[in-house]
Design brief:
Elements: H1 14-26, E1 29-33, H2 40-53, E2 57-62, H3 73-85, H4 114-123, H5 136-152, E3 156-161, H6 168-180, E4 185-191, E5 223-226, H7 232-241, H8 249-256, H9 260-272, H10 287-297, H11 302-313, H12 319-324, H13 330-339, E6 343-345, E7 351-353, H14 357-365, H15 368-381, H16 385-394, H17 401-417, H18 420-432, H19 439-455, H20 459-470, H21 476-488, H22 498-507, H23 512-528, H24 533-549, H25 553-569, H26 575-589, H27 597-608, H28 612-629, H29 632-649, H30 652-669, H31 674-687, H32 690-707, H33 710-726, H34 730-746, H35 757-767, H36 771-788, H37 791-807, H38 811-827, H39 831-847, H40 851-868, H41 871-877, H42 900-910, H43 915-922, H44 926-940, H45 945-953
Parallel strand pairs: 1-4, 1-5, 2-3, 3-4
Antiparallel strand pairs: 6-7
Length: 971
């Protein structure tokens, strides 16, 4: 087998691969098992590629479905693959590790005794097989000898993909050969467990061979490794890896159950859709996705599938419920389905499908009679009256007002119980059960259903109710309310809903309250989808005025909240006054914990102002109430904000936990993961890993671009540029942060505290040898920050300005300013910022050749980061002065006059890079490289590349790879 020289680990399988490698090193045998499509073969391929890259010979045996019924098929295929892939020593050589190999050497069979050669020839059909068959003992010994001979030449990895399809004869041969094989032969077997059914064939019917696959070894000889489904976040990464839209990652994960093959099929269905699938629409599944689901279900017998259909129809399926509904063999059927990885069966008998597409495919493929009979049977045996009414309604296709009224009452009961998702489903079912002759009642129930779906964040149900209502002769007010429900479940994806906004505006003409509600949604759209805070503020002002004129405090409070947010963005001093007005209306109108948008924005403002303790206290008071009775969007927002607060305060472990919770809720709700990935990027930058932070930031950028969400696109780019900067990728950081600058200017953003990109871009400019532009940027933002009272923004500017002073030949002033800045960050309760300033101070002190001062600064920074649990920053602080090249005293400190950007170019030139090559590596133009090289020559008083190399070679402590050592001075 020949694999790629480098094959990256499959998504989400790094830990599994490491565990597999440990098992192979210690035991030499491993069995990978799991459902079809979960990625077992990908794991085996990655292991084989690694083994091959280490010089290990890899044998790959992939069985076929027909092999199970052909005696010796798998063993013959293995011998044939060995003969085709191995070069054997010519006669007269020793065949050791250093022996020459010849593709034209004698065949492997020539080294075997006669009876064994004959048996192998019969196995491979190179010799006729007598009536009594081949000699089984000779064949056993021959295969064992072949593998021993192969292993004697060096380590061998045998991968058997599909052991469940190996015929009994081959399994016996392999079992014997592997038992005698030396430790140099390691084996990975890949198995997809087969279901066993409970069907009993009629008398006289030939019984199929239901025995399981023959094992290749006794259980004690190998470790079994289960390949689990991927988590939702890993499914998102998988989609990105295959260039598929990631914005639906949560819903794709639910549909696929984390099965990579199913997830990719569903993702390709969405990508191939004629029009973009919106969050408020049901997932469109192509024939490929359905066929994969049917293949998985095909592992179960017809009787098991009938039992599974009842489970798919039930709200809370259990083995007992399914048995009482008419399936006496329910327990056996469900056990068979569990073995086939179609369901998981808990100790209390609860049934859960492993992938959402499985029950939907069962229901999709069942005829009406089967579905009706199933619901009728369940209605008779469920012990909850709400569920009984639901099944009765689904068992009939004849509208009935009495039944519709019962379903509506059941929806109200579910709402009181706090089961908003069931309430939304029942509200829509009540509308659909209403007779046509009661048109007004049906329309009323459709509106109620749409609004109930919005409260439950069930975008699919909101769209269904709205589509039904809009197809009827509904009043304008009803049409507006249904459309608003769809908009309220849209998440980030507002850019494709322009038609809904237009029709809502038309239908709200003459209705002040509804026009206020529409203007409020437009205000949100203008900032998220259009990136226009000025227009958003105007719409919010109009909405607040209209709502106030009719006494609608709820809408007025929400509109004033949006207005306050835009006033802050635009740098208006009125923001806090307007927000206080919104808070007053909100407290009057709503209980705490239920859509308290103004209070949440108040907390966000505290975060922007670095009043972190205040923000944290308010979050901890509000979060439990929102989790208990608020909408999921508010809970996501609070976890997002809490993660940002904790990261800023240096509570890194808590920040990572809250960011993970925000992502989990986002994916569970089926919303776009872009904002949650941004939050994780912030948390990972603080206390996780710079590499993971960059990965999450890139994902957030992609998702925000897919959604055309301007707000989170800027935030995601900022998070990416910042981590690129601190990690030392200054060229990429400059490019990314310039995108942030352009986006923020396009959105007319004034307040620098909401996204602190100015200091990061200034530092990137300094690192890329553009001090004048950096100074101009800082000079432009400082007066705005002073006018608005953004004191910690000024501290960030001070840190960047100190680096400018250092680059301008004023290291003493730079060191003094950095010392003051670090102390002021400490007083402001911003430990990570303090540590970053101390790292910058250490860099400057090293330039001044004050090694003791530099070491003290680094030790102080390390102590700060260690207390905060800021692992990636601690690694930066651990870089001692000895790890960085310093100028030789004999050069009079001339090398210390080079900026970081000039030093990187000089080192590239020293290694022999041409101007064009250096420009490509540093992402610069050739003209910029030429100008920078001229300045280097002038500073070092050299006139050629050879003289430049001599100057650098005289640099004490220089390392050849120093061009990629430290990042910018700020860390």
């Amino acid at each position: 087998m020949t694999t790629a020289a480098y094959r990256p680990a499959p998504v989400g399988r790094v830990e599994l691969l490491a565990r597999l490698e440990r098992v192979l090193q210690t035991r030499g045998r491993a069995l990978l098992t799991g459902p079809a499509g979960v990625g077992k073969t990908e794991v085996a391929l990655a292991t084989a590629a690694r083994a091959e890259s280490h010089g290990e010979r890899v044998l790959w045996l992939a069985t076929l479905p027909a092999d199970r019924d052909i005696p010796g098929a798998a063993a013959a295929a293995l011998v044939a693959s060995i003969s085709a892939s191995v070069s054997w020593p010519v006669p007269g050589t020793h065949g050791g590790a250093g022996a020459p190999e010849s593709p034209g050497g004698f065949d492997i069979l020539d080294g075997l005794p006669g009876p064994q050669r004959t048996a192998v020839a019969m196995l491979c059909r190179e010799a006729p097989v007598p009536d009594h068959g081949w000699d089984p003992i000779a064949l056993r010994l021959a295969l064992a000898q072949i593998l021993r001979t192969l292993a004697a030449r060096g380590p061998v990895l045998l991968v058997v993909d599909g052991v469940q399809r190996i015929d009994a004869d081959s399994a016996d041969l392999l079992r014997f050969a592997l038992h005698l094989a030396p430790s140099a032969l390691r084996v990975v077997a890949v198995e997809t467990p087969e279901a066993y059914g409970s069907d009993t064939p009629p008398a006289g019917t030939p019984q199929p061979d239901t025995a399981g696959p023959e094992p290749l070894w006794v259980p004690s000889e190998a470790d079994v490794l289960f390949v689990p489904p991927l988590h939702a976040d890993e499914i998102a990464e998988l989609l990105i890896h295959h260039r598929l839209p990631s914005r639906m990652a949560g819903r794709i994960h639910r549909a696929s159950g984390g099965n990579p093959r199913l997830a990719l099929a569903v993702g390709r269905s969405l990508a191939d859709a004629r029009t973009p699938v919106h969050h408020a629409e049901a997932l469109s599944l192509s024939g490929r996705a359905r066929d994969l689901a049917r293949q998985l279900l095909g592992a179960a017998s017809p009787a098991v599938r009938r039992t599974l259909l009842l489970s798919a129809l039930a709200l809370r399926p259990t083995a007992s419920l399914i048995r009482r509904a008419g399936r006496p063999t329910a327990e056996a059927d469900l056990a068979a389905a569990e073995r086939a990885n179609l369901i998981s069966l808990k100790e209390d008998g609860t049934v859960a499908f492993t992938a959402g597409v499985l029950p939907s495919t069962l229901v999709h493929d069942a005829c009406w009679t089967e579905r009706s009979d199933g619901h009728a049977a369940l209605a008779r045996v469920v012990d909850d009256p709400v569920e009984a009414v639901r099944h009765r309604a689904l068992a009939t296709d004849v509208p009935d007002e009495q039944l519709a009224a019962e379903v509506a009452a059941a929806a109200e009961t579910a709402r009181r119980r706090g089961n908003s998702a069931l309430a939304a489903e029942l509200a829509l079912l009540a509308a659909e059960s209403t007779p046509v002759k009661l048109g007004a009642q049906r329309l009323t129930r459709l509106v109620d259903a749409a609004e109930e779906a919005a409260r439950a964040a069930r975008a699919d149900l909101a769209m269904r109710a709205a589509t039904d209502l809009l197809a009827r002769d509904a009043a304008p007010a009803d049409r507006v309310r249904a459309r608003l429900a769809v908009l309220d479940t849209a998440g980030q994806g507002l850019s494709d809903l322009d038609e809904i906004y237009v029709h809502a505006m038309e239908d709200s003409e003459g209705d002040t309250a509804l026009r206020a509600a529409v203007q409020l949604r437009l205000a949100v759209k203008y900032v998220l989808a259009d990136g226009d805070p000025v227009r958003s503020r105007a719409a919010a002002v109009e909405s607040a005025a209209l709502a106030g004129s009719v006494g609608d405090r709820k809408t007025a409070a929400r509109a004033l909240t949006v207005q306050a947010r835009m006033e802050r963005v635009l740098g208006s001093p009125e923001a806090e006054r307007i927000l206080a007005e919104a808070r007053a209306l909100e407290v009057f109108e709503r209980p705490l914990g239920v859509r308290n948008a103004a209070q949440i924005l108040t907390i966000r403002h505290a975060l922007f102002d670095d009043r972190l303790s205040d923000a944290r206290d308010q979050l901890n008071a509000l979060l439990p109430l929102v989790e208990r009775r608020g909408p999921v969007e508010d809970a996501i927002e609070l976890f997002h904000t809490l993660a940002a607060v904790e990261a800023r305060q240096g509570q890194c472990a808590a920040a990572l936990a809250h960011a993970g919770r925000s992502l989990a809720l986002t994916l569970e709700a089926g919303l776009s993961p872009g904002p949650a990935w941004y939050t994780l990027a912030l948390a990972e930058t603080a206390g996780g890993s710079f590499a993971r932070a960059a990965s999450y930031a890139r994902r957030s950028v992609q998702a925000s671009e897919e959604e055309r969400d301007h707000v989170f696109l800027s935030r995601s780019l900022y998070a990416l540029g910042r981590v690129q900067l601190v990690a030392g990728d200054v060229a990429s950081a400059l490019e990314t942060l310039r995108r942030v600058q352009a986006a923020e200017h396009a959105q007319s953003t004034v307040d620098p505290s909401m996204l602190r990109w100015h200091e990061e871009l200034a530092e990137a400019l300094l690192a890329n040898d553009a001090p004048e532009e950096a100074a101009a940027l800082l000079s432009g933002v400082r007066p705005v920050a002073e006018r608005l009272g953004r004191t910690t923004v000024l501290l960030g500017c001070d840190r960047a300005y100190a680096l400018y002073l250092a680059a301008s030949g004023k290291p003493e002033e730079a060191a003094g300013l950095l010392t003051q800045t670090a102390d002021r960050f400490d007083m402001a309760g911003l430990p990570l910022e303090r540590g970053r300033a101390l790292i910058a101070l250490a860099r400057v002190e090293r330039r001044r050749r004050r090694r003791s001062a530099a070491q003290n600064a680094l030790q102080s920074a390390a102590a700060v980061f260690e207390r905060a649990g800021a692992s990636p920053w601690l690694a930066l602080a651990a870089e001692t002065p000895s790890r960085t090249a310093e100028p030789d005293p004999a050069r009079g400190g001339a090398l210390s006059s080079l900026t970081d950007a000039e030093l990187r170019l000089a080192l590239l030139v020293r290694q022999g890079a041409s101007n064009q090559e250096a420009a490509a590596k540093l992402y610069l133009s050739v003209k910029t490289v030429e100008a920078r090289l001229t300045r280097i020559y002038q500073k070092l008083d050299v006139r050629s590349r050879a003289q430049l190399a001599t100057a650098l070679n005289a640099w004490a402590g220089h390392r050849p790879t120093a061009e990629t050592t430290e990042g910018p001075a700020g860390g």
